[in-house]
Design goal:
By secondary structure, the chain is mainly alpha-helical. It has helices at residues 16-24, 32-65, 70-74, 76-110, 131-138, 141-167, 169-175, 180-201, 203-221, 225-236, 239-260, 296-308, 317-326, 338-355; strands at 266-269, 274-279, 289-295, 312-315. Helix content is 64%, strand content 6%. Helix 2 packs antiparallel against helix 4 and helix 2 (32-65) packs antiparallel against helix 9 (203-221). Belongs to the type III secretion exporter family.
């Protein structure tokens, strides 16, 4: 079915935030079949590697417990002593196999999905105590999948066990005719190889279950188009809020710009559409800096402030447009405009000298040298 306008169909891949939130909740792909396979393989492998030593310890246990003296047999307290000693010997013999299985039991789960500890999953969920929800889970697609996997494991293990027992029939029959010590070692080897082959048979189930778990986990995290839009709004901010923030930033920038105009040396205008305010500090020796710029109403306000503070206002449409488009606030003018602005500042200086009665009135400014690449027609 095509996606509706409200975006109810989950057709979008999960975002990184969605994946992160799911991981924090413990909702990641896990395969119980993979864990079972690796632990069983490790146990069978450990039995094959350490089986010889285990068989020798078993023989020692039998030798000790089957060669008891008459005094020991009639002493009731000796039963506990021998039982404790036998258990300790058996535990020490099984320790390498159990240690390998324990290590793999930790490695197996993190092989798919990585290491994760989600404390929230330990909290009780009363929704799981709802009988109706339990019945619904019993007859869900997931329950049917688990049932099919259980049946598949049963038949796979059954078939592998029959094949292994059939192939080991001669060895099993030969054990009855072997000396006791050799028979025990041989039995441990047969059990180890049988367990290893049955665990290898479970690999078929794991090879199907792992992709299935990855697919189900990805499908569970799919999002609707509306969810993607909502998440973007929540993470990036609503458009109207962002617009309001930008508006406030512009207003604050304009207030700072207007406050800097009284420090300007000259205002260059278009004469009505553009206005730029320049400041030159000869002590620093840098190029002139743009203190303010604006168009239309803002340009009018710049001229009003300049007139209120007796700042020289000059009309030079080409230079005003060039500075406006090539220079940002509080930046120096580009090198291509140095000569033109220098002529403007010299002209302003001559006017100041004339007004102070120290020189004659300067002639009007002629065409200023503006590079073609910095010219703007409008």
């Amino acid at each position: 079915m095509a996606e509706s306008e409200s975006g109810q169909d989950k057709t979008e891949d999960p975002t990184e935030k969605k994946k992160k939130d799911a991981r924090e909740k413990g909702e990641i792909a896990r395969s119980k079949e993979l864990n079972t396979v690796v632990v069983t393989l490790a146990g069978a492998g450990g039995l094959l590697v350490f089986g010889g030593g285990l068989a020798e310890v078993l023989m020692d246990i039998m030798r000790i417990n089957f060669t008891l003296s008459r005094d020991t047999l009639i002493d009731e307290r000796s039963m506990g002593t021998f039982l404790l000693a036998s258990g300790k010997m058996a535990l020490m013999a099984l320790q390498p196999v159990l240690l390998v299985a324990l290590i793999v039991a930790f490695i197996g789960p993190i092989s798919l999905g990585g290491w994760l500890f989600a404390g929230g999953t330990l909290a009780p969920k009363f929704s799981r105590m709802n009988p109706l929800s339990g019945i619904k889970r019993m007859f869900s697609l997931n329950a049917l999948t688990e049932l099919l996997k259980a049946l598949a494991k049963f038949f796979v293990i059954l078939i592998v066990a029959l094949v292994v027992l059939s192939s080991d029939r001669d060895d099993l029959l030969a054990i009855a005719n072997e000396p006791l010590e050799q028979a025990i070692i041989h039995s441990v080897q047969v059990v180890g190889w049988s367990a290893l082959w049955m665990a290898a048979g479970l690999l078929l189930i794991a090879l199907v279950d792992v992709p299935l778990q990855l697919y189900q986990s990805h499908k569970k995290l799919l999002m609707t188009k509306q969810e993607v839009r909502d998440e973007y709004k929540n993470s990036e901010g609503k458009p109207e809020v962002k617009q309001r923030i930008r508006q406030l930033q512009r207003e604050m920038s304009q207030r700072r710009m207007m406050a800097a105009i009284p420090d300007a040396d000259v205002i260059i205008t278009n004469p009505t559409h553009y206005a730029v305010a320049l400041k030159y500090d000869p002590e620093k020796g840098n190029a002139p800096t743009l203190l303010a710029k604006g168009t239309d109403f803002l340009a009018l306000k710049i001229r009003e402030i300049a007139n209120a503070h007796n700042i020289q206002v000059l009309e030079s449409p080409e230079l005003a447009r060039s500075i406006f488009y090539s220079t940002e606030l509080e930046e120096e003018i580009p090198a291509g405009l140095y000569l033109a602005v220098a002529q403007v500042l010299a002209y302003v200086y001559q006017i100041r000298q004339h007004r102070a009665g120290k020189g004659k009135a300067p002639e009007p400014l002629k065409d200023l040298p503006i590079p073609p690449e910095l010219r703007r027609d409008s």
